[in-house]
Batch of 4 targets.
Target 1
Amino acid sequence: MRWEGQTVGADDGALPGLERAGLARLGLVRTVRTPEFADVAFHEVLAKSALSKVPAASKMPFGWTVNPYRGCSHACRYCLSPETLVLMTDGRQVPIRDLRVGDAVVGTELDEQGRRRYAETTVLAWWTTRRRAHRVTLADGTRVVASDDHRFLSDGRGWVHVARDLTDLRGRPFLTTHDRLVGPGPGDSAVRAAAGMAAVAGDGLRVTAVEDLGFEQDMIDITTGTGDFVANGVVSHNCFARPTHEYLDLDAGRDFDSQVVVKMNVDAVLRAELARPSWQREPVALGTNTDPYQRAEGRYRLMPGIIGALADSGTPFSILTKGTLLRRDLPLIAEAARRVEVGLGVSLAFADEELQQSVEPGTPTPRARLDLIRAVRAAGLPCGVMVAPVLPWLTDSRDHLRRLLDAVADAGATGVTVVPLHLKPGTREWYLQWLEREHPRAVAGYGRVYARGTYALEAYRQWLWDRVEPLLAERGFGSSGHRARSGATGRYADELRPHDDGDYPAGSIVAAASAAGHDGRAGRWRTGGALDGMPVDGGGLEVAAAGIEQVLF
């Protein structure tokens, strides 16, 4: 459609929830809306930088990223009124408006027996928004003002939203007068919420009323390391902004929710940065946070310029995507691969389309992704496949894994990793509701496998690997992870490093160079092999601040 006719003129002022000054600092050119993307605004900016540095502490197998788009239309919007008191680890209760990144607050975590206990955590992000206000009143007189989709921890029901969402066909759980909230309560909360103490509900924390106040107001939310915090004496969920947002050049402020920033000049800026004498042609990864081949790329066509800039400068690069729009640029990527190392990765978790569409509605079907893998390989390019996430009791049977790996091998994948489901806060509640509705017999098993929280128990991970390893070997993949010297194909035996289900599949990532330079005989820049220099993991299960599913999916 004609986007040119959807420009928001300068006289319109700032869009709801966004400051004009903030967008101006980003180099705003214009804002575009289109019926094709309901409730999403695209802010076209002239960027000042393109390359983003990844901290060494993340242990990612790449040091630099490029994100032509900033923002996500699926952002959580949990938030509280500014005067809400948050319990600090030193016992003070501080208004949420006064918190800052790095502050030490009280959260909760599950122990080995699956019991929730108080724990010390830190504030990772803080931002404001504007939402319709709802007031929750408890039996002891405590009142909390929050948005309708904010969640509190209810005894016996888990995380429950403040109010019903009439547009949610799934029927999300919401607070009623039958709920008792978990928390230390008001007053001397620090005594009842010391680190290690059990988090329990009290009679005084019974919900007596939930009221729609009928107006919007400024609200605030934070992200913590545990995914929750204590607000006005009750355990409160937070918006789970991925810790990679900041160092991958995404923010969690007002321009994040349903606002996509498009770096219109990203290719020119990138060319200038790559031309600097200090640039060492280190590998660059694309698609590590926002998918560069999301639907908007069909209009903006930023990737061809980025690919050209990287190839012309002799910089190896990799692209991780679910988007079939990648096929448009395969000739350009194949040309780039004659000059630099290139890695391509696609995620595919299902052999059955019906189940896939039930879990991932609106995403490309398994057949479409398999066709994408074939197209990539037909273009002479490597393509690693992340079989992720594997769903216990649903997609971990030998039959399903065999059919999926057969299809992946038949499509020509150069490497495969198999990663079990991770249930992070914000995803956990939605998924378990879906599971209870669609596959109720599996709910009890999930309670056992994910008793410690986000990650499956080590016993399950090892069971899955024991099941998968021979299936991979039978199909010529041999190992789910990178090999020390196997180049892009991952299909012949050599020295393997220990398996880790956070590994990246062979062919998907161009790793750091051990002996970079120009190979005159090959006519391209060499980086010591596509996989040479691969670190111990690709963001495995125990790495602070980033798991592989945060980076890829």
Target 2
Amino acid sequence: MTISLPLRKRVKVKDMSLLLLNTPCPTIETVAQCIGVLVSSFPGVQYGPRHYRSLEKDKIRALQKSRGNYSAQLQLSKESKTDLQWWINNVDSAMALISHLPPSVILTSDASKKGWGGIRYDKDGTIMQSAGGRWSELEANQHINVLELKAAWFSCLALCRNEKNCHIRINIDNTTAIAYISHMGGKTPTCNALAGQIWDWCVDNKLWLSAAHIAGRNNSDADLESRLEHDNTEWKLDSNLFHKVTQQFGKPEMDLFASRLNNQLPKYVSWRPDPYALAQEDIDSSSSEGKTTAQDDTSSMQGFRSAIQKWRLSQETQSILLSSWRDGTYKQYNTYIQKWYQYSDQRSCDPMSPSVTDILEFLTNLFHGGIGYSALNTARSALSTFIYIDNLPCGNHPLVKRFLPGVFQLRPALPRNAVTWDPQQVLVFLEHLDCATIKNLTLKLTVLLALLTGQRAQSLHLLDLRNITIDAESVKIRFGDKLKHTRPGHHQQEIVLNSFSTPELCIVNVLTRYLAQTEQLRVGATQLLISYQKPYKPVTRATISRWIKTVLSQAGIDMTIFTPHSTRSASTSAALRTAVPLSTILKTAGWTNKCTFGTYYNKPVTDPVYKICL
């Protein structure tokens, strides 16, 4: 559905624009009136905000010169006259959509002082394509706001080259860049010019561009692209020498495998997405020249994706294979795969087919960087997903397997704690905690659930009212979402928490009271735990962990030694020592193997505790 200006309004816009164009030196007041008419037309002129800022600048300069005298005259700049002519030519056919369709293209961009980076994602959040490059010496000295806006511009050009008639959403971690795109310009000349270029490109290709904020910590893919160095490819012949060669042998029509920084000809083809390249030269990753493309596919699990391309699998099949990792594993592996590509780029070795020496030297480099046994094991597993040596995953090579025990001897990975705290200490604190406020009631319920279920903060975060049943004697909890320990054939069984004789510690009593007090605050939210502060939204896993830490600290637990996750070992260890059957502990906490509990969670406590812990 669209909206357009009524005839009377269109006539007024054209008359005001013609009046200014035909008046050699209009007054500042007349210009201000015209600006007001144009701005009031924005709801019905989609690209109107792109074509009035030159008038605004002329007005401001004239007011400064005349010391605020609106009766003073001014001379319109060439840019202002161009904008006025645009209104005259387009106001009759202009319209604006009341609501744009959801974006069909999702991008993220980022800039650092080294370079720019952009990522294009598909609908399920998987990386489809990445782009990036270095800044020139002149660009690197520009303000970060300019660089962020330029990174967004380059990302659109490089990753949306063939898009037409669609909605593009670009996520940026810089609010100034977002504002300039959303408002189609701004006050700063450089940023305003960039925003103008972006929107002119959108108009030419019938695109709508929306900008949204993304937290910097969630923009790691584009951030990595902005920091990668490709010094082994960013070089060219001296321009004078190139000129002499072309004078003697003739000037070619096109520069192949170039970039915007090293192209010698106006027309050039890049080896990866480039904002100004005529085209991109695709290189099959299975060929001997595939090294160049593979070196830059470092975002997320692109290394693994590149490795399996030799089997010519579809994008859908590759995405399913990549989905075999949980989000946590994905992020952990991503860190070391990125480091591997940076390392191989610096050492000029093939990241897809390295020698065992390259692998060992990389692990040694990580070791000297302060990384311990556990993290190095993760790095080994990450590389094993796509690097094979002698038809074996590189992590299974005898020398690599022997390397890790050596790391353990030099930098042993010992358990953080050999003992755990006594849950009774926390229960006594909760029993006397004043729950007159929604805050204290929320904290009590959260810690009681952590102790009674032995579950992680992630599991507590996923508790849903639709999966909880309460009666006079018990609370029954089911999990409808995938948990960390969920795997094929195994999911967390229903947890039954019985009522307790002490009302202050009875989960049935505390949960019933919590639901009654939060019923009017939820506004449709079904997640059990919501914030105790306005606007009372569902909380994140990190918030739940922080709540647990707060209560444990107030109860006298030394949180410089223990973590919020220690509730899992404290409650289950105490339950075992008070004769709770091992099968009950394993079932409630979600373990299928008693060895996991015995090795990592069953720790000695100083005092006996009550069976309330499970």
Target 3
Amino acid sequence: MKKRRLLIFYFIASFIWIYGTNYVVHLLTPAPFEFFVERLKEIFYVVVTGAVFYSFIRKTEELSTSKQDEKRLSTLINSMVDIVVFKDGEGRWIEANKFVLQLFQLEHIDYRGKKDSELAEYTDFYRDSFRNCVESDAETWKNGKNTRVEEIIPLTNGTFKTFDTIKIPLYYSDGSRQGLVIIGRDITEGIFVKKQLEESQQQYKSLFKYNLDMVYMVDLNGTIIKLNPQFEQITGYVSAEIIGKNISHILPEQYKETVMQQIATVSIDKKPVMYEINIPHKTGKNIILQCTFLPSIVDGKIAGIIGYGRDITTLRQTEERLRISEKLSVVGELSASVAHEIRNPLTSLIGFVQLLQVEDQKHQFYYTIMMDELTRINHIVGELLLLAKPQHLKFQKADIKKIMFDVISLLNTEANLYNIQIDSHSAQQELWIECEPNQLKQLFINLIKNAIEASTSGQKVQVLIEKVEKDKISIAIKDVGIGISKERLEKIGEPFYSSKEKGTGLGLTVSFKIVQSHNGTIQFESKLNQGTSVHIVLPMYKENANRTGSQTEPN
């Protein structure tokens, strides 16, 4: 309609111009010049109308381009899943994309020209959110520069969305407020992923730090790069002493090649491997570690090795004790079935030999040898029976010093035969324990006899008795004889294992059992050609203790 009016106006104006100017020229222009003036008038008309048409077309094109740009911008803004809001200098909404309208439920509300405080009246649910926007807008104008805030917007389904919002203030050249551009990026998922990552890192740190096993990380060359606190507790070494060193440099020689091969295997196969090693503790004692190597894979490539080391020293010792216990069980079964069968004819043999000694004086030398051997057999049978049959032990209050005095008095004669001196030292006060005296005598006889037999002429055997801690007594028997090798020391107490030429390997087995039945501990320390020390710790007598114990061997 507007175009038609403009066209009609143009035609009317053109007719008026043509006829009006022709009339004026005819009246005012001399006849000779009338033709030239009319031509100039026509040229002027063409130029002016052309310029008008050119300007009109140009403005139309610019307007069309502007509308296209505006449409593209609107399409772009509305396609964004971010908050986009344009406000004037007074905080009134000028334009907003569809996302923010849907978010705040303003799709059917004429929001243009309204402030946040006015829009808050249209919804109770988002009222607080609009009020928070007013405060953050005020803070932006106060700062006078781009301001970044993190806004949490509640949703009607009970969840929340978090937006990283940038507010950009615009000013006129005179410094007055022109408008405010607000862009908010939804970072809810990013925060959730970040939180999960932080939780995962914390779980990893907790697993690493509080793991009961030793955890260590090495690179593909075997260099240790990280250790958890349990490493120090298990090995005794401080982490700073080990980190940065190659794992092969801190291992015993016999394990170096094996461990490096295991690292190479994990690197190539990308599969875990498990192995067992025996390494020295910082204090010098040996510990047994069950180690596992796991590949540390990053972006599909192996970046290093994660190792776990579990101290199984106690487990292996328990297994060893179980093995010995099973061995003792076999000994018990064998002893129970054989010992009685041996003792019955043995009693008869001893009786007949004693009768022959009385009646036949000619062959006394042979009878003496026979009696010694029969007595030895009887002693072995006695030890077998001690291991085999359950015994009812009646514990009573006794002075450990007196028990030891009786034993030393008994063995002094034998010691003098070997030119060995037994030195006894003990505390002055009486040391009472709850025990079965005869068994303790047998224990001390076994240990002191071993010390005498291990010593050479002129040497001494020391016996020390003292109170340790508040309620325990320590008995130490020391010699400076031939000593025991490390390999044999590990098997001390096993049945049928003896370093003596005529030993049965039952004496120390019985001794261990006696100490165990008295709730004590026994420990051997020895160096080859330097001597042996036996340390026994027994509990002291308690006033209210009046017990009857039983020692039962497996059948």
Target 4
Amino acid sequence: MEKDQKRENHKGITVNVASYTYVSISCCCFDILSQRTRNPFRDDEYLPISSDSSIPVCGLPRVRVTGIPEQKENVGRESPDKFDVLVQIKAPSMSEYPEHPLKRAPIDLVMVLDINERVDAIMLAHIRNSVCFAIDNLGELDRLSIAWSCPRRIFPLRRMTEKGRKYTKQIVRAHVFADGPTDAVEILMTAARILEQRRYRNTAAFIIILSNRKEPPASSTNREEPLDYLDKLPDSIYPYPEANNAKRDVFPVYSFGIGVDHEPVALHTLSSTTGGTYSFVETTEILQDAIAYCIGNLLAVVNVDFSITFTRGTAEVVLVDVKAGDYYTIVRGKGSSGDIKVQNLFADETLSFLIDVAVNRRTVERMESHLILDWKYKDAVVSSGVGEVQYRCTIDLHPISNIAEVELNRKRTLLLGADWIDNALKIAEAKGVKDAKNFLFTECRNCSDSVYMWILERIREVARRMAAEDGMVRTGWQAFGLSTLSACDTQRAATTGSRAQGAEFDPFGTPNTVAMVTKSRSVQN
């Protein structure tokens, strides 16, 4: 606004030609210097204009959405007072874009290296190799910038062409980390400004932060204490809850806490608030696999701005609650409608949400629609000529199949397991680690460990680490619990502890995450 006023003021000045030329140059120089002062990060590398040919909406791969109501074969015509509806979202595969060279959306990525003096030569080598692995897997249309612990950028957003990758890796190999404490707020604000002030924009943008910032004293387990500095961050990386309603940029933060004594709470909160994941990397030996596990998703964005609206089909239906983890949800009008908002969809992933529905009458018509689902999104791969697309389906109470019942129960178990871990962390804050450990051991004994071994193994591991920790020995139990929560709440790949999942069973893995971890391990062997 100031710049516009200055220009208007000078338009009214009557001077001779020589003076006018001088004044115009002075104003121009002032404007440029002022703009650089206000927007010092508007030096990102130019993006070529997309050469995608326009493709009609009907020719694009579709996001598949299904609604599975909880209804047994023997219920008959009588409607239950309350039941769950499992909503499943299945993103298209990259192979469904055979004509597109990239088969995914190009990204803008800022990597934040919040690493301090506790790095020896071996750890430094692992960190550098991990960052270089990420660089090697970025494409020519992807752009990267790195912010480090000075705080400042190492270089602006630049395309990862062959020349760009070579230049970037040379800088990373020569980089020396800070010798003392670093300012987390300044580093993160730098990362946010790089993306906020860029002139050119790829379809999706992310921040990855690697941090070995120390945990508070062992006597403190309060998850609120380390969060004070987050309030100083901009909305783009630490939005207030109501900001999710606004049409504004929020950049998902994918954080990696390194070591058993790093500070996990702020990292988890930052990721949870923005829609990213928090990973616990117990040793730097697995850092490259952990980053591979993450970028396997980031380099597979196929849809953006996905949201789903659910509306009751009749006045007798009330929407009670929505279980969607970290994703933004709202129920409006005393249970008449609601929304779930998902920022990006990664290729081949399946997201599942539970909607609690109550019916105010005992008998309903068999074919009567209980719930209406409307969803919309943008295709992120083929952008030319393609805007937002919308679809709709209706849900009535029909008998549930055995396969659908397994999916419904599986989702409930993962939600329940995440609740147990969350409650254990709260008990640790209020009553101490011993009571939290006893709570988890009790819950484990009450559970079946058949197809739900993944979540149960993590519950047992949190309890084991709690039991092993004392005032002198750190086990990372809080970090392990929070990284498990992050995976469950986002339904996306996150590393928990001493090994990235890779080819092992993971309920949230995709072909792309598995392939990237396999590639990482083959490079290291």
